[in-house]
Design a protein that fits this description.
heterotetramer, A: alpha/beta, Rossmann fold, 11 helices, 9% strand, C: alpha/beta, 2 domains, 7-stranded mixed β-sheet, binds thiamine diphosphate, binds magnesium ion
Chain lengths: 349, 349, 320, 320
Amino acid sequence: MSTLPTTGAAEGTREGPYLELPDRVSLYRFMALQRAVEERGLSLYKQGRVPGSYYDGRGQEATCVGATYALNAADTVCPLIRDMGAHLVRGTTPLAILAHYLGRAGGVGRGRDGNVHLGEASRGVVGMTSMLADMVVVAAGMALAFKLRGEPRCSLAFFGDGATSVGDWHEAVNFAAIERLPLILVLELNGYAYSTPSAAQFPVHPLARATAYGIHGEPVDGNDVEAVFEVTRQARERALAGEGPTLIAAKTMRMHGHGAHDDARYVPAELLAKWEARDPLARQRGRLVELGVDVAAIDAAVAEEVAAAAQAALAMPAPDAASATVGVYAASEPTPLGRGEAPWSGFCS
Amino acid sequence: MSTLPTTGAAEGTREGPYLELPDRVSLYRFMALQRAVEERGLSLYKQGRVPGSYYDGRGQEATCVGATYALNAADTVCPLIRDMGAHLVRGTTPLAILAHYLGRAGGVGRGRDGNVHLGEASRGVVGMTSMLADMVVVAAGMALAFKLRGEPRCSLAFFGDGATSVGDWHEAVNFAAIERLPLILVLELNGYAYSTPSAAQFPVHPLARATAYGIHGEPVDGNDVEAVFEVTRQARERALAGEGPTLIAAKTMRMHGHGAHDDARYVPAELLAKWEARDPLARQRGRLVELGVDVAAIDAAVAEEVAAAAQAALAMPAPDAASATVGVYAASEPTPLGRGEAPWSGFCS
Amino acid sequence: MQLTYLEAISDGLRCALREDDRVFLLGEDIGVMGGAFKVTAGLLDEFGPERVIDTPISEEMIVGGAVGAAIVGMRPICEMQFADFVACGFDQIVNVAGKLHYRLELAAPIVIRLPCGGGVSGGPYHSANPEAWFLHAPGLKVVAPSTAEDAKGLLLAALADPNPVIFMEHKGLYRRVRGEVPEGPYETPFEARTVRDGDDLVVITYGAMVHAAAAAIEQLDGASVRLLDLRSLEPLDEEAILAAARECSKVVIVDEANYTCAIGAQVSALIAERAFEDLDGPIIRVATPDVPIPFAPELERAVLPSVERIRAAITELLAY
Amino acid sequence: MQLTYLEAISDGLRCALREDDRVFLLGEDIGVMGGAFKVTAGLLDEFGPERVIDTPISEEMIVGGAVGAAIVGMRPICEMQFADFVACGFDQIVNVAGKLHYRLELAAPIVIRLPCGGGVSGGPYHSANPEAWFLHAPGLKVVAPSTAEDAKGLLLAALADPNPVIFMEHKGLYRRVRGEVPEGPYETPFEARTVRDGDDLVVITYGAMVHAAAAAIEQLDGASVRLLDLRSLEPLDEEAILAAARECSKVVIVDEANYTCAIGAQVSALIAERAFEDLDGPIIRVATPDVPIPFAPELERAVLPSVERIRAAITELLAY
Ligand SMILES: Cc1ncc(C[n+]2csc(CCOP(=O)(O)OP(=O)(O)O)c2C)c(N)n1
Ligand SMILES: Cc1ncc(C[n+]2csc(CCOP(=O)(O)OP(=O)(O)O)c2C)c(N)n1
Ligand SMILES: [Mg+2]
Ligand SMILES: [Mg+2]
């Protein structure tokens, strides 16, 4: 199969501790960037400058950043609602994201889609549909292609606890298990699906399903970015070794409402307080401070970058109304997603 | 809720051995009836008198007969492809079934639907759609109604191993598990889904899913009608006691091709030979003979009944073409299914 | 009482839950949350968790579960969180609910509420008008109120109907439209309504486009333009449509749905077949082109039928 | 070579698998079994289980998995065992495949084969003609061959297209229709084809109804009746349709699909809007009424458009 990518995979394995100091700093930086971008988006939303509705992943940064950081350039990612950090790790810029929120022509979605519905194909990222669990199926399909072509690549799909109830989730996981596809399934156990508590989504911890599908299951503290990195890295090794999918259950907490319109009064205040104390940024910041890293400088740089991006995004033009009906169909041979040429991932570049 | 049925449930519990001799004879008779009706249907099909395609449940009679026999009059049943015995236990006559195969006005489906797509609402039976797993969802909905109204009733759905791969199956089982619905799930593990062996439907024995959904799981020899009866009876007790669904995994074998058009050359001959030796009718016949029952007389009566039914069915008129477009919509307040007035079940009547 | 379109639907639900203990609600986040749009707000408190059931995210289960409950005597009302998600419950609607009575003489009196429509920067997944899919599938009824009064009346009529009914409630009208709504139960017939009379031309539409068309007609001077609000798409009030076409001789049809195979196409074809002789000009359609609904207001406005586009179509046809 | 319609599709699949190693097949029982209709018979032996993949019974997975493989460079061809089961994979088709390019500039070049159509006592679940659902959803192409040559040519053109294409293959034509089919790869354009010329009236249709219409026209004497086979429903060959309507001035449209919101409605509406002035009579539609397809031959014959019904429609309109 001559047209297929041959670069970018399998290498990137290091001996010894995988995460060296620059990696650990990067992990923090991406989390800080996610939080700053999302906070800025939220304030723009509250100012009435962001159309539609608004969602963020506050409190869940460690899961999406840590997991995505463990991927290789040629791997593909399907982020979900809470995973802006995944886009950032892959290289999508704060400017492109903020312009996306604002519905500007220069945003990732070119004004066609908004809020968390984004993904840059050139970075191996598939923008989510709204229909929860759709992307788990698509990720399985990508993994199938990798397996069929014998490529050392995997695909990773994020999803919430609520998404596990959708039939598509089951069809994808069952198929991936049968075919032992190189697929990493990251379940974000954040306690709620909109207003519905997890206990109303599954009667048993969903990790039990790993056993029922005959795949590897791995619980992890979803607020510890290094722990998430490590289980994902191992899942990736299994995937590439032909051992099939891994279901990673990352325990975390949705610290905001489902969206900006949702005051989440159905979430007990004590629960939030408990999780506030487990803030993933604070945890990683603590580690870095102990190692003598100037975290305040990172924070300042992040704040500056995001402020500048917001300025630039607001200055961008709206999409041209005449473009609204263009591009429903592709006109030419498509460029496959994620050819692996660019070293966008912080770790396995 | 004054309009709801109050009769027909909960009673019918006996002390001691549940199956008395007349029951054991009945179980045999229903299996023999299923086989005779389906054999007759097949020969009519081969004669070109049955339109469309043709399916039967040869070798699986014990599962559908045994399970359905354990239900009470007020319970509801969703049979699938291999479950003609379920219809017979509920009281659908051989004549109505044969006329159904033939597409006659007097058949169960009134010529609107054929082969295994049938069900008499007045007997608490919902005719299957083709889309596998659809009916598991519908059965869960019926069970929900029973639970909401506090009625001592349950619903039972049959399905094949292949059907467990459909997303709907998962949505139904997960919901039923969460709500602890009075639902009995009878999985007919017959080794194949059309040409696809079970191993290509699930990587792990599907009973493992019972654990993953937090419901009771029960393996059973699907070719032993009394064993199937007993696990179903217990499942029904659990259902009525508020203990939620049971997944019964009935190990059996599809002894014919998927349909009459399918020579099933993909099934190893030795496998069929092994299962031929475990024929469910032979097993029950053996028990009855030991008990001194004149089984030959039963067989003769069954043969005679079916022969007469076939005669009568062939004499029935085709449906009136003018009726083809009538009844797409219901015109009046519907009669709810399975009001429990009629003691059609062999056991709990 | 004066209610918004949204309040009218809530009131209809409350009425139904009070009047008939067979009625219950099934949907995602309809309990504590009161639904994504607060249509069911307060109902959990009044009727409890057995009549206002929060389900897992399982649209096939919501619809098929409702069918199951309905055939044993209940009257479930399902909510899709957005109309768009109905694609996830599609099979149970078209293959189970829609074909049940024809095949089995079993009726499934369920109502499926679809918060639909664009104009709120919902983007490709929160702006759908999927009614044509269900019009093409046999055995389903489909209604689409444009006013608060009809919203409640059609909901209660849908619930009284022994068939599965898809209830298209337009998100854009929820708080924008308000009107006098009778107290207590009443039913609006599944028939078209003449919103305003006229005989030079008739605009035929439904849902939110009734308001866009009314605004377009307001802006014309002099012409006598009739406005027909279909209200029910299945059954389709063919008599009212044909009478309007014959009396006005010029017809503009407006769909907010995507153009191809929308109900507007069906209405046009009906007129072209049965009122051809009375036509004094082409039958003009205004619809959303065949494009996913874009998110940015500039783009969304460019695809949804606007007051201007409708007015232009009317003006051009009047001049024909 | 002379091939049946079914053999032409098989030949197209074989061609594609030989020519392009990105092509693979995904479906239920397509391997050892060769599919329910034997369309893929022999392909497992020639190409192996990595290119002819038997899946679990998971239609969403088949479609969505194909999309995933396509966006990383493969060219999957999906088979639904019967067109009817496409309702079980509906969400992935309309929400993932159809909207991908518009939203993300990602293309999903997949083909979804739907063995469709009635006339074989398949009953309510094995007789579907669901194309209108996909015509109403943006971003999907839909083709529907009526001949063996077009079956292969449209399949290969669908595969070469960078978009998701729904391929409607009519079960009733599988073994009934046969014709000369070129060897090796070739592509049939997504355009209408004039099956026979004429200028008194045009019958517009596609799929199996092309043969019913041709038979109906045969039985007329004298009249000069044109027959247009749409072949592609999306893109719709509007130019060919309008030209035929203008030149013939009388139009009969035949759908095997259920009546409401079928492509026939769209074609009629198109003509009523854009060729109105050239019409010499009402636009007549012949379609299956809005009813599930019944099983018994007596009932099925009563609902599917028959040669007689089509002939009667033509005769009546000619006399208008
Ligand atoms: C199939 C489907 N049904 C309903 C919705 C509406 N919806 C959007 S987000 C959401 C809750 C998601 O919960 P979860 O999967 O746990 O993700 P979280 O928001 O907690 O990250 C719901 C119900 C949807 N997006 N998709
Ligand atoms: C959703 C769906 N997809 C495909 C089919 C086509 N089909 C009919 S029967 C069958 C195999 C069923 O296997 P299983 O569930 O194991 O039942 P069995 O025939 O073994 O009793 C298939 C694939 C279907 N009926 N429904
Ligand atoms: Mg969650
Ligand atoms: Mg099986």
